[in-house]
Amino acid sequence: MSNYFDFYAPHIKHHRLNSDGQLTGLCPFHQDKRNSFGVNTKNGLWICYAGCGEGNAYQFAKQLNVAPPYSNETYTVKTKPVDQSYLGKRDKFHQYFMDNFDKCNVYEWARSICEKTKTGFDVNKNTFTFPITDVDGNLINLRWHKGPQVAGVSGSHWFPMKMLTDATSNSFVVWCEGEKDTLTLLSKGIPAITNTNGVGNMPDDITPLTQFERIYLCFDPDLAGIKGSRKVLNKLRFLIPNSTIMVCQMPGMDVTDWFYES
Predict the structure, then answer these.
(1) What pTM was estimated for this model as a whole?
(2) Exposed, middle or buried, 178 (CB in 10 Å: 0-12/13-18/19+)?
(3) Is 81's pLDDT higher than 70?
(4) Cis-peptide, bond into residue 208, ω within 30° of zero
């Protein structure tokens, strides 16, 4: 039986499991009399057909104020794909970076990492571009270094998501501040991720982190980074009690500067 069933069933009155893996019953978020709540026990996604909303297992746990489930599986968050016109921009920027790698690669990132993440360079804005994808590899955002996200696509997401979906052999991960530092650590052979909505904020779906025994928070050593690391530390210790969460910061500089100035 799926662990999603084990997680949801105690919270859903009059539940029934269909042959296709759909769990139905009374919605725990309102005075339900019509069995309007449904869960896909294969991927953990739920929906209330009476209008309470929909989401994944982590969001369900957060709304009920209960501990989320823990497994090595990655939960899927429904995210609207970015306008397909940005696929061409992503590929154009990435190709330019690959064609001019020695000239543009000022941080000495590994070419294999830049290829895997499809990191690009926008020559008109003279800055790097970072594609943001969902767990299926679909483009959901395009970010410019120290610039805006794509209009109309909001929220905090993981970069690179493939780091999380392919990380079954890693016992730890470093959560750092920004795509630049993430690529630096990955280029050094250190598993690393970042979120796209600023220090101290967290993506809606943190369950991919539960596969790691240790999570290191390595934000910039400024006031925002210090406050953000404490905020995230307290949240993760509550939400992921089975993992060891630690804060580490480079003295007086960010991750990339530390590697290239020390």
Answers:
(1) 0.69
(2) buried
(3) no
(4) no
